[in-house]
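[Automated response] Your request has been received and processed.

Submitted sequence:
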Amino acid sequence: MRGSEALGNGLAALFVLENGFFASNGALAQGGAGFGRQAYVGLQGALGTVTLGRQYDPMLDYLQPLTVTGQWAGSMGAHADDVDNLSNTNRVNNSIKFRSVSYRGFSWEGLYSIGGVAGRPTQNQIWSLGAGYSGSWLTMGLGYFNARNPNVSFYGNTPNKGSSTANNIGTFGSTTTGESIPAYAGFASAETLSIAGAALRITMGDAQAGAVATRTQFDSLGSQSGPNPLGYSGNVAFNSFEINGDYRITPALLVGVGVNYTKRSPVNGDNGARYQQAEVGTVYSLSKRTDLYAICVYQHASGRDSLAQEAVASINGFSPSSRDEQTAMRVAVRHKF
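Generated structure:
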């Protein structure tokens, strides 16, 4: 549900409420949160837009549209369990965001989320910045994201997540459920999560080609109350690189391909982990609002993952494989309201 109302003198009030649910059983998605996708109100004026509530961060706003996950592959095309959140697996609560108007193709955003801990205002704070340019043939985006105590402030901000001592990233350490998000579930004790990235896309007629690079870092492992059964300490980082392209064969038919590579740095003396992934997909538009699509994703993992086991393939949105390879396919009809 979206709405806006003119207030005069170029000022308008607006709101957005988006609810996610699982089509198979009707259960609430986004960790059981009502209107868990986005829920905010704001004011729009001559200089830009200020919004308050549960929102996407500026880095996602500027980089996601330039990735395969933001163009045609959906959540399946995310990098290694969506480690850099470019598939918007997690949102930001209690946030204030400003987005400037576009000036000759340039714009920027800033976001701050209040931590909400009495006497420690920065304990669970989140802040993010983003900027970009959009022209006739070139689109670029830059972004940075920083979350204090991310196990609570970022990964644990929905009703179905646990306390600060639970693993809100995945299920590592649970005796009743299987492991999930093996790429980084073992790093729930980090004091700070930071993500930096850059992306670009070049358009040449009916063809597009793009590249994306991100660095996701979990700092000061063992410093927070999140579980740390393996006794991790120090910092660990993931570097992800993606190249993508698509071609519109006819006005109704699009085909796309992409490859991405994610490498984790060593921690506690291991050799890190590597995730190689390839995607291919096609979209056929029946109308402006309805299309048919088919996507296939393949991933290969090597090294040791965050759970100190032989790395297993784990395509985003699916249960992890029991081995180092995994293939997923999806064929569907999509209708946009």
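Summary generated for your ticket: Residues 58-63 form the longest helix (6 residues). Helices lie at 58-63, 68-71, 150-153.
If you did not submit this request, please reply to this message.
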